[in-house]
Amino acid sequence: MKYETVIGLEVHSELKTESKIFCGCSTKFGSEQNTNVCPVCLGLPGVLPVINEKVVEFAVRAGLALNCQILPFSKFDRKNYYYPDLPKNYQTSQYDLPIAVNGYLDIEVNGETKRIGITRVHMEEDAGKLVHSGTISNSEYALVDYNRTGVPLIEIVSEPDLRSPEEAKAYLEKVKAILQYIDVSDCKMEEGSLRCDANVSLRPVGTEPFGTKAELKNLNSFRSVQRGLEYEVERQTEVLEEGGRVIQETRSWDENKGVTLSMRNKEQAHDYRYFPEPELVPIVVDPATVESIRASLPELPDARKARLMADHGLSAYDAETITVSRAMADYYDAIVKAGADAKVAANWLMGDVSKHLNAAGKSVEECPVAPAQLAGLIELIAKGTISGKIAKTVFEGMWDSGKDAQTIVKEQGLVQISDEGAIVAIVDGVIAASPQSVADFKAGKEKAIGFLVGQVMKQSKGRANPELVNKLLKERLALV
């Protein structure tokens, strides 16, 4: 029997506010353990929470960017459960009246666009962090750091519209891009500011009812999301094909072993005994405020991709690659604004620039070559001052020194040789020293000229104009 995969994602994103959601404690990552805490976020008796207005603004901003309806009236609720990283024994969250509902976003997988529904976006406080002595399943002990307790979160809950691990990965990448574009979260998965839980189930193809789902936790990278879901689909398929029954449970992804492990039975909503938070007033968002926030939204990834394709003639692949990151797209726009050819700029950005950034472990914001400097390099190529090959050497110098292209070309004497007389002398010398290649070319082996071109470029230290080299070689070979 063939099964259809059904996936829904719950994305938790920490908001980049300076203070926590209900108190004035710092949200700075990496502080000494249990130093960014106070009686409010530790839930000590006699304290009262006060909502951080910036959290509401960021949540509305995210809801609008995800095409949601912003509810004019929402409230906080207590989600009751006991866990060592939750000092109050409940989490202040939103349940039946969240800040935003009924949204969607479009993803593209294998050339096909698909719309994924978003059930809700709600605000809540983060829990603390358990530091285990080993993996979750085999730790001898765990330590608790409450610095993260009370850091503001939004949770983005998708509809169960995803049908493959590849779609889930694409959805998560799009959510991350949107949150970064609107500047409400830094989305650093390695620091836990973007986390994802996945609900996955199987059902026979052609049937409507959903199968029994398992929730996967500890998915801390895009790769983990895809690998964890692929494993879980395989595991559930084996269970069903052997006549077994999938149990509704929460499972942890073990990155090192590449398997999911059972943690506990999956809770239902009623298990949390939700009830309205009595110490916080409801939130009323004025429609004028919503429209003001909507007007302040930047150009989002899909719109930017469409603009790059329409205005600059980029392919869908190139435009998609560049607009995945707002910082990358901003860098690209700055290169073009500085006068560079749009397609050449895209090639350099996705080629040498990205290669150097990846090798150095840097983000595009940390690139030592400014957009205007890269535009200057591209201009030297367009003018014929340097060849494309020399340009790569020049870029290396720009990366290492921070100097502009013109300076490096002048200092290192890298100006391209376009004087026919100078090149002819080299060409004639190469022809005289390469009788076999000349004979091969005369015999109709066109590839032989490639060797001769290479020899000319080598003797000119890469400075000879390649087009002129090809032209002169063919002319001189015709005379031999």
From TrEMBL:
Gene3D superfamilies: 1.10.10.410, GatB domain, N-terminal subdomain. Its EC number is 6.3.5.-. GO terms for biological process: glutaminyl-tRNAGln biosynthesis via transamidation; translation. It is an enzyme of class 6 (ligase). It catalyses: L-aspartyl-tRNA(Asn) + L-glutamine + ATP + H2O = L-asparaginyl-tRNA(Asn) + L-glutamate + ADP + phosphate + 2 H(+); L-glutamyl-tRNA(Gln) + L-glutamine + ATP + H2O = L-glutaminyl-tRNA(Gln) + L-glutamate + ADP + phosphate + H(+). It comes from the Bacteria. Allows the formation of correctly charged Asn-tRNA(Asn) or Gln-tRNA(Gln) through the transamidation of misacylated Asp-tRNA(Asn) or Glu-tRNA(Gln) in organisms which lack either or both of asparaginyl-tRNA or glutaminyl-tRNA synthetases. The reaction takes place in the presence of glutamine and ATP through an activated phospho-Asp-tRNA(Asn) or phospho-Glu-tRNA(Gln). Heterotrimer of A, B and C subunits. This is Aspartyl/glutamyl-tRNA(Asn/Gln) amidotransferase subunit B.
